[in-house]
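Can anyone check this?
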Amino acid sequence: MSKHADPKTNVVTVLQERGLMSQLTESGLPEAAAGGQLYVYCGFDATAPSLQVGNLVPVMALAHFQRHGHRPIIVVGGGTSMIGDPSGKSVERPLLTAEQIAEYAGRIRDQLAGYLSFEGPAAAILVNNADWLSKMTLIEYLRDIGKHFSVNAMSAKESVRSRLEDREHGISYTEFSYMVVQATDFLHLNDTYNCTVQIGGHDQWGNLTAGVDLIRKAREKHVHALTVPLITSASGAKFGKTAGNAIWLDPAMTTPYALYQYWINIDDRDVAHYLKVFTFQSLDDIATLEREQEADPSKRVGQRVLAFELTKLIHGEDTARAVEAASRVLFGGGVDELTPEALMHLASAVPTVEIEAAALERGIPVLDALVTSGAQPSKGAARRVLQQGGLYVNDARWSDAEGVLTREQALFGRAILLRTGKNKYSLLLAK
């Protein structure tokens, strides 16, 4: 059992206290969790090249189970992605090619591998449902699985009913069958690992209970399902979006710096709730942060802990520290804490122009540097900024309009950070 978990505390109680549970089947899960090690699974379809931060909610629930000695199973949906889940969708999503799904499944597998421990007595298991779904014949599917499903009951599920009532789009037989296929996953995992718990998003309730019913009918066993809530902001906005764009876990799609800043900019009203959901900070520590936040909101102490912990969880501690240092530079903290590792994150956050190393060796006239970096449109405008005392080079005021920037002045011998205005930065970075 993880040293981070209190063995006297039931994991179901922990999930409830941290706002990580919205629905639970009436099947004795707290008693089962107290009685021994459980196998608990959650599936992630490979319908995009990356998961979003919202996908971390069920992942955190899995992690809490693991910290209490239970074994998590991550199912990458290489098979179910071929079908498409109608839950929460008003129209049918375009079907992806098998090659796209295989690529996305591999990327998602790599993204999820960092959240759970794959060693020890509670080691996580990672599987792809294409491994068993793709081998099932139509006759097996209809005879062994389909006979346990009532079309009447399936039609009553919210994810299906809402689409049946939509005369314009309706629902295809493919999507109608999705809950049967997902239930097959639960049955397979129950047969293979004695998996007895499935976790999903709030809108997955119909799919989850379909799996519970299938195992009850096909194996005469009682298993459990729970959903995590849909996370929204205090203003009611959908979580994980900024300026119309999703916040992705893949650093190529959302930079670590942008991820860090997303959490830094969270509304004060959301900080305590998000700390409970997305970090492993104790409830006592979160209460302390909440009091500090209320005493001086301008310090954003809660947001800083949240931003650091989530960046560390997603990208590792070294990256989190480098991003934190880059953020401090850009928000008045100076360049003293900047590290060579932080330069790439600084470059992702401000307009950056790559220059030849030889240019720094020769020296770059400061007026040319302002124009080359895009900080000023012309040498005349650059000279006026200097005359008004508005230029800072690597956090130091610069007033010499005829001065030259050299390698000796550069940060780590290759970076020149220019500031013209309160928060208007640009960066020259030698190759």
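Reply from J.R.: I decoded it. The two ends are 48 Å apart (CA to CA).
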